[in-house]
Amino acid sequence: DAGVTQSPTHLIKTRGQQVTLRCSPKSGHDTVSWYQQALGQGPQFIFQYYEEEERQRGNFPDRFSGHQYPNYSSELNVNALLLGDSALYLCASSFGDYSNQPQHFGDGTRLSIL
Amino acid sequence: DAKTTQPPSMDCAEGRAANLPCNHSTISGNEYVYWYRQIHSQGPQYIIHGLKNNETNEMASLIITEDRKSSTLILPHATLRDTAVYYCIVLTDSWGKFQFGAGTQVVVTP
Predict the structure, then answer these.
(1) Phi, psi (rounded to 5 degrees) for B80
(2) Which residues are B29's β-sheet partners?
(3) Which residues of chain A make contact with B45, given a CB cutoff of 8 A?
């Protein structure tokens, strides 16, 4: 049973470009959350998708957007990249009673902005 | 939102028990306490969670005080592979939005 998978593992972009990161949730999970982790800090919540809709959002600008497909996989898009967007982007999936069910994380995509 | 306070770092000898404290004095009655750990260059790994009662699984034990204002994660026999950042999180959102703090850097030494 595969866990959460993310692609690509590493990515290098330049300022102003756009990037798309991908996530496949753990089998049986229907909810996908995205987090940004800057170096030396804990992950910060970006947004969460459920039933192909953005259900809630953290304190991130509209440059960050996402999508969830009918098979529950998800994408994170970031436009007009800034140097400060350099971070590890983590995807987490879950199902059911969210308060009593752990989220399972992938190993992330390391995004570097030059 | 309930917040957590953890020591920034801890050392532990290999083979000994590691006791990781967490304060969450503003926790509400229906909010769960979760523990995750993150080994360098990997995603956070779920360890254990609980509401009121103590919990144990194959990885660790979670002791929650009766007033629920603090908890302790116990790694019974620490190994070098347990070196990681450990995060204590109080889940305040029913949809599962985690708010991570800075965590505790645990270093297990031979």
Answers:
(1) -60, -30
(2) none
(3) 105
User: Where do we find the tokens 């302790």?
Assistant: B72
Residue B50: how many other CB atoms lie within 10 Å: 19
> What six digits make up the tokens of A37?
């982790």
Give the pLDDT score at A1.
63
- Are B100 and A42 inside 8 Å of each other by CB? yes
List, for residues A4-38, the tens digit of each pLDDT value. 999 999 999 999 999 999 999 999 999 999 999 99
Mutate to test the interface with A, among B62, B85, B97, B99 (most CBs of A within 10 A): B97
Indicate yes or no: CB of B96 within 8 angstroms of CB of A41.
Answer: no
Token pair of B108, please?
């297990």
B38, B45 in Cβ contact below 8 A? yes
As given in the structure block, the two tokens for residue A28 are 């049986």
Mean pLDDT of chain A: 94
- Could you give phi then psi for residue B55, rounded to 5 degrees? -130, 150
Distance between A14 CA and the closest CA of chain B, angstroms:
22
Q: What is the DSSP string of B6-70?
A: --SEEEEETTS-EEEEEE-TT--TT-EEEEEEE-TTS--EEEEEESSS-EE-SS-EEEE-TTSSE
CA distance A96 to chain B (A): 9
